[in-house]
Amino acid sequence: MTVIHLRAIFSGVIAVPVVALLCGGAPLPAAGITPFTPVDRALRMLNAVPTATSLGAWHELLGSEPHVAGTDGDLREIARIQNAFVDMGIATTVEEFDALLPQATEALVEIVGATDIAPPVDGTRRGVIALPTVERNLAEDPATTHPGLTFGWNAYSASGDVTAGIVYANYGTKADFAKLQALGVDCKGKVVLARYGGNFRGYKAKFAEEAGAAALIIYTDPADTGVNKGKVWPAGGWANDTCVQRGSILASDQPGDPTTPFNPSDPTAARCDTEAIGLPKIPVQPIGYAAAAEIVRRMQGEPVAADSGWKGGLPFEYRITGGDALQVRVKVVQDRKIRRSANIIGMIPGAVHPEQLIIIGCHHDAWCFGAADPLAGTIVLMECARSFAESLRAGERPARTVVFAAWGAEEFGIIGSTEWVEGHRDRLLRGAVAYVNLDMAAMGPTFGASCSPSLREAVLGATVRVAQARGAANETVYDRLSGGGRNEPQFGTLGGGSDHVAFNCHIGVASASFGSGGSEGNSYHSNYDTIAWYRSVVGDDYAPALMVTRVTNALAAILADSSVLPLSAARHGIDGQRFLRALKERTTAPEVALSIDQLIERAGRTAESGAQLDAALASAHPWIGTAAANRSQSARDACAAIDRALISLDRAWLDDAGLEGRPWFRSMLAASDKDSGYAATMLPLLTEAVDAGDVNRVRAAVVRYQAVFDRLDRGIDQARAAMQSVSGGNGPPAPLGTR
């Protein structure tokens, strides 16, 4: 196998081999040799369980009906998952929460006063063109006729009925609205038309409202996910002209139920007044590109510049304004009521360190059937749970506790997972080792991941152990990621958009998000997100889902059964330096650059001491494991102390004051981008100060980051001291039977 090394972290330091951490404490066994470490033994049993047939069966069970959060379909989905966990023999709890979960009762978009159509003959109003807000039914996909499906809607839209002129705002980003202002285009009192993409849809609504718009229409443009990309559903996988993307437009300062910030949304919770929590004040409605084309082709204003990036894929001139004659009506009726959903929690207590939690999660709610989002990940969660349950029946209990979490109401604003974290905050701060998110995880054969720095080596170790979906003989996921070992695999950073946010950004738990792609198509949040679409586009062999299941099992086994947690200490400093260098490139202020240079040097010292600890743990892993397993409770206690110190390194990034204007975001390492929602902002306190050009904020942020690196160094020292205590400070113990 290829031996992976940490890169050299400062001049004169030799790169530290971490193969022992990748493999749970020992070299990978050669093919045909019986595994001999706890991780190898556990993983051999775990990954013998998953099958494509079982994954397909989970898909049919959980994708059998629409199940929007807070509806009767949602309650039935909760019961299906609960029953499945119970049938597996896993200790199961259903943790209900009451959150603000709107429902839509009416949606209408019309062109008013059109002069290019024949007079009506059926009694309808003259010059009025009603535009579709729902997908057409397809004979090729009978699920699209299900009576539980509805028109498209954007949750948390204000109710209203607006008729006004039209302004086109491209993707509706902050920069797009700034460009409109620079062009002298006034959005006040207008209906703004924006296409999906570029940022979270909630920020499109926020920026439109701030610009004075009276209403917002968001549409799917064929250049982004429609006919310009390839064949559309049902002939191909891309969005056809009536495909409508639903979704929440809640853009609060933190995820979760907006009526109970910082606190769990239980029945007794004190709630904020819904009029005072910054919900959208304008009606917002999504449509497909057939409907958008009817508006765009009638617009008479100034054309967009050819090189502006504002021209989409409709076969008409894209214009900034509609002209004086074109009027568009938008009517939305939604309630804003507290409704109930639930998280379903399955748990297998650990045999050695039950207080340490490895949490694997994916949400269960969907806008429609949800075959891709979320069920391409939920089925992986269920099959992972089945793997551990079968291993438990065979007598293999993990050393640490493994939790399987199916979250409710993620689609409305990452609500279920956030409420769970807020409700169990103290326990999670003490004992949560890692969180693995599987939202929409199996969408093609190309594996990808985003993860916290400390988890990088463990994730790589998981990919080494799993066969590549639809790959060559003996090809592993790692082989594909690394180009056959020629390149260093690249993982992303964790931002917003799914259930990792509360773990990663609020309580500082090392987190990873797994996914796979490469399929040609998109049915996102539409009535076409059906099992028929998934099996036609992603494949009916479930090979990607099987691959992601096995990688998840592998990571869970590495984390649950390694004698000491395989969390990298050096990566905190290494990646801290990397993020700081990238940030330095964004400033021209000499004082700011100097401050960043000082932090780069400080992070380098943490990287150095962390690398020394990683190397010591890697070389000591075999005798630490032997001591913990066979010698004494005191040795096990010392291993637990090492674990606590390693866990504390991720918590070292927490700052009780939080980010400026967003105190819920307590991690100084990562936050969701404040203007896009989905993207990650690394070192957010400093990054936002630099971007604001505020030298005083930069100075204050530098002080707080110096404190972070001080805490990291103390944690590294604590881990080193605990490691020494395993052998009483005298190095590795003598072999068993000689002492």
Task: Please outline what is shown here.
The chain has 22 helices and 19 strands.
Description of the structure:
Helix content is 37%, strand content 15%. The protein is an alpha/beta fold. Helix 9 packs across helix 17 (543-561), helix 18 (570-584) packs antiparallel against helix 19 (590-630) and helix 20 (633-651) runs antiparallel to helix 22. It is globular. 56% of the residues are buried.
What's the architecture of the largest domain in CATH terms? 3-Layer(aba) Sandwich
The CATH class of the largest domain, by name, is Alpha Beta
Number of strands: 19
Distance between the termini: 36 Å
| 3D shape | globular
How many strands, which pairing sense, and closed or not: the largest β-sheet? 7 strands, mixed
* Content of β-strand: 15-25%
Average pLDDT for all residues: 91
Q: How many helical stretches? A: 22
Which sequence of strands runs across the widest sheet? Answer: 1-12-14-13-15-17-16
- The structure class reads alpha/beta
Q: How many separate domains make up the residues?
A: 3
Q: What is the assigned CATH homologous superfamily of the largest domain?
A: Zn peptidases
Poorly predicted regions are: 1-36, 730-739
Using only CA atoms, what is the Rg? 27 Å
- The fold-level CATH name of the largest domain is Aminopeptidase
- Helical residue percent band: 25-40%
Task: Record keyword descriptors for this entry.
Glucose Oxidase, domain 1, disordered N terminus, 739 residues, 19 strands, four-stranded antiparallel beta sheet, Aminopeptidase, disordered C terminus, alpha/beta
